[in-house]
């Protein structure tokens, strides 16, 4: 198939940036979206132009690196996938495809389609852990039974890949699905309960500091999340925060 | 040729590690804060090491080329992690895990290291649970286990199909805690481009900031390399796009010996290539071979018709199918080890029986399992005289419950419904058992330079068992290196901070900058990928699943040729002082072009077949094992450790003789 691509080009953080049109031809419907981008880049390199910078790595939907806003949707059309799992069979010959970086104040553009997601790192550093040192003398893994339901639910929350699609999809650029997922994983497990109050307070405070917006329950984040993280996690985070506000310490 | 000393402690194997720990030098807590350690790579090995070293009080500087430590390719591991917990009460023990690993590795690993690995495996699970890793549990709330290839017990812990992700997020959370405390300085989007030695010791690295292009100097009292394997030397593999061997290859060029590069794992069940544009290959979990039957058409004309799209697999009658694994290996059938299954698929496809347009695919068929489970369900549910449709429906539901996520992944990529038509699979490069040579302390042949995880060579011999990579990465990082590095650093408590304004740093930085300038100014005519793809093709065709002397010699010459063309004609657009992914790739491919040649040389020297390394000249000629791989313990029970001497072809071989005191050497038989 032959396609017209409208792609955001921006030389660096200070550059104003603009949409630029490109044509690609003979694209196979079996290609992944990023392989189509590879074809375009090879074309650009061969013609002496600078290829388009975009983040990608594992190309199997788990590293969370790829982050394209395609035709106005985070990770493009199709559900439950990352950009690298999107295939060209979702498009038709002659289509025009718009490709932009994640759009959010807290995710400044580094170059072209690459954004800076270190705000997520700082939120995790504020409390996304259980304070336990490595030791060969930790208690036996089976010493504390955990209900299968709690373990499964914690796993569902822990499936977040930190890609940022939730933020990019949200009209408020809210990071509450991302933070809610981490808070939930630990809140559901006995090991995480000890520090639960401090964790939720610190992570939410850092989230606000980074300039992410608030949640207005639109639910776009849940729709676009490649890993099916549910809004329930935001509700749980709010409950945890409320619970923490009632504590003295 | 010299003989290498692995520094294995004396004494019975079960006491070695304990005795060693009792006798090594320690660094007192007050002194640790005066000692800096660089950790390059933040996957399971690097991440766990960085976190643990920081917890102990050392100042850690960690480096990752991605924008977060959480994105290292350990994240993609699906199946699980082994540990000798014996929670199932099925007779597992440290000795059994040790035995299975040595045997699975076809007797080419170091006994003492493997025993230690088995010994600390239990601690890993305890540690991960304490960190909040949500492992699968049964209804009683205790941890669940499953079974993997090559063993007779259930010792694999798992978190759905995302075990690697959950373990890595565990390391990542431990790192985050130390980053917040200021004990780890995290350098994301940074790539190590060389190591700096002072007075023969590793004392720092040169790294490139991938956002600004700035070349930076970082010093430390010890340097740890945890940058994973070199599978991308084949261009196509199950590795991530950015996975590379640059850090490992650069330390090799600075004196670290490279061991067993020819030991590479080709995984049998991957989604086949669909065209020349393909950028990577996707693994389908080994667990599918529990229920899937592997076959190709028995008649060549049928295979040809399928390749041309004129015939469908479901139209081929049962008697015209060749279930070649069941035919050749009746005892193990479709569950033979990875290396055996991969070679058998290649043999059929090379003979012209492959089933997709490229002729490089075989079927993995669930129809028999669907029927079997369907009938079973009909009986359980008391449905008398169930129709064929009903049985299929019931059977498909069972398969969906077991493998639903994998079937969905397959359908997304291939656009075919694997419940209705057999999956197509083909082997792909997955893991590299070879790597930087390390002694029992995980130290390379350069003092103060350590190598852990997939990047080193030590534990998997010539073939790695499923669910053992995660175990080894975390064992090295959480429980081995933090002890062994202290023994070395105990001599450095009075050294003080290592300055970076010295001639040693000047020299290495100049080398790095010169190379970058060369790429930017070369203005050739061909892209980096052009050369990488050519290298990959030579590697796959001649140094892939089946190797022979003639092919290996040709491969060495061809790789050298591609390398020479690369340096003349490579084209890197953009500039050095900005984010420039083409420039990053150029440096990585330059190193693969050298590593590939050493790889072929190593395969040439090892004129035996063992594990993932199959030499056509070394096969059983008669008896029950006729046509199978023939290991040669008399001449090749050693580790090949290569010393860099300029051109890869000039590398000098050093041998570490392997002794098997606790396990008897036997031929593996799956007949």
Helix content of chain B: 25-40%
Largest interface: A-B, 77 and 78 residues
Q: What name is given to the CATH topology of the domain at 269-429 in chain B?
A: Flavocytochrome C3, Chain A, domain 1
Question: What is the β-strand count of chain B?
Answer: 19
Briefly, what is this?
The complex is a heterodimer of chains A (249) and B (671). Chain A is an alpha+beta fold and 249 residues long.
Descriptive keywords:
heterodimer; A: 249 residues; alpha+beta; Ubiquitin-like (UB roll); Fumarate Reductase Iron-sulfur Protein, Chain B, domain 2; 2 domains; two-stranded antiparallel sheet; 9 helices; 35% helix; elongated; B: 671 residues; Flavocytochrome C3, Chain A, domain 1; Methane Monooxygenase Hydroxylase, Chain G, domain 1; five-stranded antiparallel β-sheet
How are the SSEs placed, and which strands pair?
The complex is a heterodimer of chains A (249) and B (671).
Chain A: E1 3-9, E2 18-24, H1 33-46, E3 68-70, E4 73-74, E5 96-101, E6 109-111, E7 114-115, H2 118-125, H3 148-158, H4 165-169, H5 176-187, H6 190-193, H7 196-209, H8 220-224, H9 232-245
Helix pairs in contact in A: 2-7, 3-5, 5-7, 5-9, 7-9
Chain B: H1 16-23, H2 29-32, E1 36-40, H3 44-56, E2 59-63, E3 81-82, H4 94-104, H5 111-131, E4 156-157, H6 163-180, E5 184-187, E6 190-198, E7 201-209, E8 215-219, E9 222-225, H7 246-253, E10 258-259, E11 264-270, E12 293-297, H8 300-307, E13 321-322, H9 324-328, H10 338-353, E14 362-365, H11 367-380, H12 388-414, E15 423-432, E16 435-436, E17 449-451, H13 469-489, H14 503-522, H15 528-542, H16 549-569, H17 581-605, H18 633-636, E18 638-643, E19 652-657
Parallel strand pairs in B: 1-2, 1-9, 2-5, 9-17
Antiparallel strand pairs in B: 3-4, 6-7, 7-8, 10-16, 10-18, 11-15, 12-13, 12-14, 14-15, 18-19
Helix pairs in contact in B: 3-6, 3-13, 4-5, 5-13, 11-12, 15-16, 15-17, 16-17
């Amino acid at each position: 198939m032959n396609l017209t691509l409208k792609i955001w080009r921006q030389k660096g953080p200070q550059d104003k940036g603009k949409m630029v049109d490109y044509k690609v031809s003979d694209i196979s419907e079996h290609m992944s979206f990023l392989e189509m981008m590879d074809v375009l880049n090879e074309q650009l390199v061969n013609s002496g132009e600078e290829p388009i910078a975009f983040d990608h790595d594992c190309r199997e939907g788990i590293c969370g690196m790829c982050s394209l806003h395609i035709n106005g949707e985070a990770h493009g059309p199709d559900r439950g996938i990352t950009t690298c799992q999107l295939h060209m069979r979702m498009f038709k010959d002659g289509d025009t495809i718009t490709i932009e970086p994640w759009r959010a104040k807290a995710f400044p553009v580094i170059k072209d389609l690459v954004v800076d997601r270190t705000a997520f790192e700082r939120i995790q550093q504020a409390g996304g852990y259980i304070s336990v040192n490595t030791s060969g003398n930790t208690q036996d893994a089976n010493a504390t039974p955990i209900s299968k339901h709690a373990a499964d639910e914690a796993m569902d929350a822990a499936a977040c890949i930190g890609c940022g699609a939730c933020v990019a999809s949200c009209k408020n650029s809210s990071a509450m699905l991302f933070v809610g997922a981490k808070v939930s994983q630990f809140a559901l497990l006995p090991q995480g309960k000890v520090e639960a109050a401090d964790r939720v307070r610190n992570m939410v405070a850092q989230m606000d500091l980074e300039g992410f917006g608030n949640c207005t329950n639109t639910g776009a984040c849940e729709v676009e999340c490649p890993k099916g993280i549910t809004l329930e996690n935001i509700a749980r985070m709010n409950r945890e925060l409320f619970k923490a506000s009632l504590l003295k310490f | 040729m010299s003989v290498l000393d692995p520094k294995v402690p004396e004494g019975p194997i079960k006491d070695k590690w304990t005795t060693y720990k009792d006798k090594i030098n320690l660094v007192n807590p007050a002194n640790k804060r005066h000692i800096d350690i660089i950790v390059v790579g933040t996957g399971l090995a690097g991440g766990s090491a960085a976190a643990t070293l920081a917890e102990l009080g050392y100042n850690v500087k960690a480096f990752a080329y991605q924008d977060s430590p959480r994105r290292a390719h350990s994240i993609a591991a699906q199946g699980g992690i082994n540990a000798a917990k014996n929670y199932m009460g099925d007779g597992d023990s440290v000795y059994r895990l040790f035995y299975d690993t040595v045997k699975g590795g076809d007797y080419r690993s170091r006994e003492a290291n493997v025993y230690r690995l088995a010994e600390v495996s239990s601690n890993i699970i305890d540690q991960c649970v304490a960190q909040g890793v949500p492992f699968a549990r049964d209804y009683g709330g205790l941890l669940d286990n499953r079974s993997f290839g090559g063993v007779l017990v259930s010792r694999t812990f798992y978190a759905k199909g995302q075990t690697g992700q959950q373990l890595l997020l565990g390391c990542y959370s431990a790192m985050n805690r130390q980053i917040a405390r200021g004990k780890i300085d995290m350098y994301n989007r940074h790539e190590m481009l060389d190591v700096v030695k002072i007075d023969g010791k590793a004392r720092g690295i040169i790294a490139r900031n991938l956002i600004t292009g700035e070349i930076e100097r970082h010093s430390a009292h010890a340097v740890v390399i945890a940058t994973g394997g070199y599978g991308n030397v084949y261009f196509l593999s199950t590795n991530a796009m950015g996975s590379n061997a640059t850090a490992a290859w650069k330390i090799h060029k600075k004196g670290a010996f490279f061991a067993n590069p020819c030991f590479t794992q080709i995984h049998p069940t991957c989604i086949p290539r669909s065209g020349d544009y393909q950028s990577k290959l996707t693994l389908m979990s080994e667990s599918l071979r529990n229920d899937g039957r592997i076959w190709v058409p028995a008649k060549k004309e049928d295979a040809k018709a399928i390749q041309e799209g004129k015939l469908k697999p479901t139209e081929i009658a049962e008697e015209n199918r060749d279930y070649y694994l069941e035919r050749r290996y009746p005892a193990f059938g479709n569950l033979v080890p990875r290396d055996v299954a991969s070679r058998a698929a290649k043999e059929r496809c090379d003979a012209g029986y492959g089933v997709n347009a490229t002729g490089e695919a075989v079927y993995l068929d669930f129809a028999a399992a669907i029927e079997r489970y369907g009938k079973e369900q009909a009986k359980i549910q008391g449905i008398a005289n169930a129709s064929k449709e009903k049985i299929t429906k019931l059977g498909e539901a069972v398969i969906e419950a077991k493998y639903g996520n994998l079937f969905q992944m397959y359908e997304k990529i291939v656009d075919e419904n694997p419940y209705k038509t057999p999956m197509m699979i083909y082997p792909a490069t997955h893991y590299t058992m070879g790597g930087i040579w390390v002694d029992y302390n995980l130290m390379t042949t350069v003092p103060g330079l350590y190598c852990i995880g997939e990047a080193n060579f030590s534990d998997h011999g010539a073939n790695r068992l499923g669910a053992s990579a995660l175990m080894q990465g975390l064992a090295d990082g959480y429980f081995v290196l933090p002890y062994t590095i202290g023994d070395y650093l105990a001599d450095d408590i009075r050294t003080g901070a290592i300055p970076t304004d010295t001639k040693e740093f000047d020299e290495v930085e100049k080398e790095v900058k010169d190379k970058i300038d060369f790429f930017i100014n070369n203005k050739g005519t061909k892209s980096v990928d052009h050369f990488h793809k050519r290298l990959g093709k030579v590697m796959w065709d001649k140094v892939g699943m089946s190797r022979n002397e003639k092919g290996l010699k040709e491969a060495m010459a061809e790789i050298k040729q591609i390398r020479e063309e690369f340096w003349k004609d490579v084209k890197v657009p953009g500039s050095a002082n900005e984010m420039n992914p083409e420039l990053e790739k150029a440096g990585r491919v330059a190193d693969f072009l050298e590593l590939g040649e050493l790889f072929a040389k190593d395969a040439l020297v090892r004129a035996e077949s063992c594990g993932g390394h199959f030499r056509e000249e070394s096969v059983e000629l008669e008896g029950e094992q006729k046509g199978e791989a023939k290991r040669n313990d008399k001449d090749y029970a050693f580790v090949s450790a290569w010393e860099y001497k300029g051109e890869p072809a000039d590398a000098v071989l050093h041998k570490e003789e392997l002794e098997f005191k606790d396990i008897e050497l036997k031929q593996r038989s799956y007949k």
